Amino acid sequence: MKKAGIIGGTGYTGGELARILCTHHGIEVKAMTSRQNAGKNVSDIQTHLKGYLDMEYTESINGSDLDIIFVATPHGAAMKEVPVLLETGVKVIDMSGDYRLRDVSVYKKWYGHEHSDPGNLDDAVYGMPEFFRSEIKKADIVANPGCYATATILATAPLLISKAVKNDIIVDAKSGTSGAGMVPSPRTHHPFCGESIIPYSVGTHRHTPEMEFVLDAVSKSSPKILFTPHLLPIVRGILSTCYMTFDLEMTDEDVERIYRDQYGKEPFVRFVDEPSVRSVVCSNHCQIGAKAFGEKVVVFGAIDNLVKGASGQAVQCANLMLGLKETSGLEVPGMGV
After folding, report:
1. Whose C-alpha in 4, 116, 145, 300 is 20 to 30 A from the C-alpha of 94?
2. Which sequence positions are flagged as catalytic?
3. pTM score, two decimals?
4. Closest CA to 55 of 33, 31, 38, 25
5. What gap in Å lies between CA 94 and CA 125, rounded to an integer?
């Protein structure tokens, strides 16, 4: 049994990691940190884990006693934790955005501060197994993808790789309120967002350079993305609607063939007629659909932002890094209703 630690165990991401791992047959959670709740029982804070995870939060973790550590802290904090952990020889998956971008100037532009650990950026592997599986298997540090980025990259990459579309992409994405994290804000206060749809971070969302960087890495297409995220009055789930222009004459059948060729053997990606958030909630699955309209094509990507968009994808990567079956702990369907 491999031993895992979670740094930042009180948030939604840390709690979701613990939920998935507490029934995993190859990875056991041995430590979870929380400065605020150190000494308290994990299941007293994450009450859904009562009866499944009996341990106390600690202030810190000794990496040398573990096989892998998930760093579920905000950006800026993770880069201070990761170098010390790597020195102990433990494998690390960073759940923040600190290691997703290779260029420190791009990081500073979008995140608003200097990167304090540029030396590890080149070693960090982007944690999307559908495109970087072989690299993840050999990695000591993995940068877990962002939720919007996951839905959008999985939806658009096959058409870019096949050179079927131009490189200008419009992305209209909608996410549940859990994507904003556990700390309440005026925007996520229920009376404000409960019966509304709210666009936010228009042109400034930090997943934009991540999408462009990764899509260019897999397709060599230099994509240009206009990204507008929206907040939906649901708890979990993302639907990313992506508009592209064909560079070749394509039918719906041609488009479907591209996606089935790309993802036909992938355990967690499905091409369907009508992607649905409810079909993927609480699962590590991504549903993709597409429709051609003359010179245009619309592609949809639906995921659970807390699972395939965060903790589930991290466990998928951990399985690969530790030599376990890639789907271990994740072989469950979505809720459906």
Report:
1. 300
2. 147
3. 0.96
4. 31
5. 10
